[in-house]
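Model: Ready when you are.
Researcher: Fold this.
Model:
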Amino acid sequence: MSEPALPLSDDDTAEKEPSGLIGSAQRALRVLEIVAGAGDGIAAKAVARRAGYKLSTTYHLLNTLVHEGYLIRLGHGRGFGLGYKVGGLYHSLLGELDVDHQLRDGLHQLHLRVSAPAYYTVFRDTDVVVAAVADSPEFPRAQPLDFGFHEAAHATAFGKVMLASLPVRERRDYLAGAGMPRLTDRTRVTAHDLETELETVARSGIALEIEEFQPQLACVSAPVLDSALRVTGAVAFSVPVNQFADRRSDLERAARAGAASISKLLSAKDN
């Protein structure tokens, strides 16, 4: 007999889900995300409460994830934490995105040099994906611009760099699928306005975003090129908008230099 459906949490009811999904898999992944977000030591009762699941169901899910290596049970009754298989998945994904320790080290050096969070994005199929981020407590990344972020290309500096490199038809197909939601009062939400800006980005090799993605945030980005001079990625920096006017020239120079450095690194790997 199939397991009865559990009450949906508020997050679950935010939008109607497509048919054909496996509920038990969804619940297990939800538990995994909760443990990951909480860090080592979350108790089963806390997981059940956050997920909106029955405690008995939560224990079954936790035990399954422990058995498969995606969670561990901490000693002395301290609860649960991420298992070591998760690290393997992460490194496999980094490999798919062609991000190695040299690239991460290079991005970290850019962050230190500029005193601003640094981002590296790539194409993955048709998505524009944040593949690496370098930041620090003094200069933290803008949320939710974290590893794996792949939305709002029309409203981010690195997204504009990537979109500007696409043929017109591919770009229109991408935007038709992704949409151009208004995120702030300054977000460009018409294809005409965005196309005009992307023409400038393609000519200048630099993209700006000032409070289009998020209030009080400004970003600058430059393209990363492969050995055939095709855009394969972008380097970007973000700063509070009240710093942007004074720092703009330095940020643009740093973005161009950083993108050129990573372009050289990637070309050397190909040869």
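Researcher: Now this one.
Model:
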Amino acid sequence: MIINPIGIMVDSLRLGLRDGLKKSKELGADGVQIYAVSGEMDPANLTPQARKELRAYIASLDLQISALCGDLGGHGFQDQTVNAEKIEKSKRILDLAVELGSNVVTTHIGVVPEDRGSAIYETMLQACEELGVYASSLGAYFAVETGPETSAHLKSFLDNLSTKGVSVNFDPANMVMVTGDDPVQGVYTLKDYIVHTHVKDGIRLRQVDPREVYGSLGFKPMSHEDIAEAATSGSSYRELALGEGHVDFGRYFQALQDIGYKGYLTIEREVGEQPEADIASAIAFINTFK
């Protein structure tokens, strides 16, 4: 029996920020996750007054921010030549999250190489160390989204960092769709790092190199839009409505309870022509486990 609060990725509703916030409340959410990379939610575009007004508006709806999304796309933090700029922007997104009452920013860091001695592995480690130290200084987290690598490999990478300021946003569907990893076992493997979760479902159609999905140096850089498009019509994997894919949500939710996770179950719907209806159905689906 789950007791976690339910969140909605506001951008999944495709209604704009204010209307999306209102609709999230109408649908019964406890909290929301918001993209904060570009447009009106880009930290550079939000004055101190605008931040206060936005926080007050969200509070007036009796909502909380479960997390901001700070995914900067491209090759994650694999490219040392652009990391200084990306790290700086990531810090500003985390500052914004804290100002708005959240301590989590979710992101993709790039596919962690299998070769722990590679230059890319070391570059990613250095970037995440800096981000993690900064997050810890604020009592906050950069939460790496699961999917590009197995849970065991991600854990071994995170274990190299000096703090838990870089932790995990657990997305079970990404694991099912891309690596074929077991999300239930993944919860137990990553139990010390999970600070936020996505609720999403899907199937894997064929084995695929995660670098072709998420981008990697030497591969085409992937955007959030590219990944969503592949989840709709791609030949490798398909995002589906909750309960229609291969995530065993009964066992998955039980695993989250077993490790004592009390944070958000945030619904992300990246595909489909009826996002509002799909998200309403997702809430109803989650509530069957309460």
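Researcher: Key takeaway?
Model: Residues 80-99 form the longest helix (20 residues).
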